[in-house]
Amino acid sequence: MHDLATDVIRVHDLRMSYGPVEVLKGVDFTVRRGEVIVLLGPNGAGKTTTIEILEGFRMRSGGQVTVLGVDPARGDEAWRARLGVVLQSWRDHGRWKVGELLAHLRAFYTPYRTPFDLDELLAAVGLAEHAGRRLSKLSGGERRRLDVAIGIVGRPELLFLDEPTAGFDPHARRDFHDLLHRLSDLEETTILMTTHDLDEAEKLADRILILDEGGIVADGSPDALARKVARDAQVRWSVDGEHFVHATDDVTAFVRGLFAQHGDAVQDLEIRRATLEDTYMAMVLKEVRR
């Protein structure tokens, strides 16, 4: 049972058709306050359609949806001010300066809530040194940081992210992950994101939703989903230069017994579980075979 007071998103029997093509065939899930949820699925599975319905940008064909206690189809400006959206791309005029654009957008939120302080926001997304630069002069990675800043300027309760780190270099990606952890942990921001980067999903997600064939085919933490696919973990070690491999569903007991038998002679100990990529491929392929 979920506590209705902590459910930021509630989706029941969500359906969406484009003409004769049924894209969503009865999607059900909930998102609790402060969770980081990653929505995965193959191209064409309906991820973007689902997100756009939740954002209020697309009308659904059927089902019940509430976001922050409101049906997105009826959301007003005060409701929209509680949301943040980072799109895959965002068009604007290249002559805007970074600080001026964010200050302009920030002003739209002030009648409804307390947005981020501009200097704090610029520092959070790594653009403090670029406040006076024109958008046309930003690199691809800097431009993407600005997209994120635009999405969170209103200090949203719920943040939607569509492929947020596309084009980020490793350093920018790490900074972005730190920012998301800060928003979730300190601001209690609820985050729903899509990504094709399964390593990123595994690092960030409290819970993974896999959307395929019109419905949610998996829902759980990365570790819990991995255990559904492969309960056994693989233990690798060496003793006196000889290497061993053993599969077990109780790693703790096996490793304890290993050291009881060999003590400090155990070297190169490594434990491998199914990765999120293993899990994702197994679950999506299972749906294809049905």
Automatic annotation (TrEMBL):
Gene3D superfamilies per record: P-loop containing nucleotide triphosphate hydrolases
GO CC annotation: plasma membrane
Segments forming domain ABC transporter: 9-238
Keyword set, alphabetical order: Antibiotic resistance, ATP-binding, Nucleotide-binding, Transport
InterPro entries noted in UniProt: AAA+_ATPase, ABC_transporter-like_ATP-bd, ABC_transporter-like_CS, ABC_transporter_ATP-binding, P-loop_NTPase
Membrane topology: Peripheral membrane protein
GO biological processes: response to antibiotic
Localization, UniProt: Cell membrane
Sample GO molecular function, one term: ATP binding
Broad class of where this protein is predominantly found: membrane
Protein's name in the database: ABC-2 type transport system ATP-binding protein
Organism of origin: Nonomuraea soli
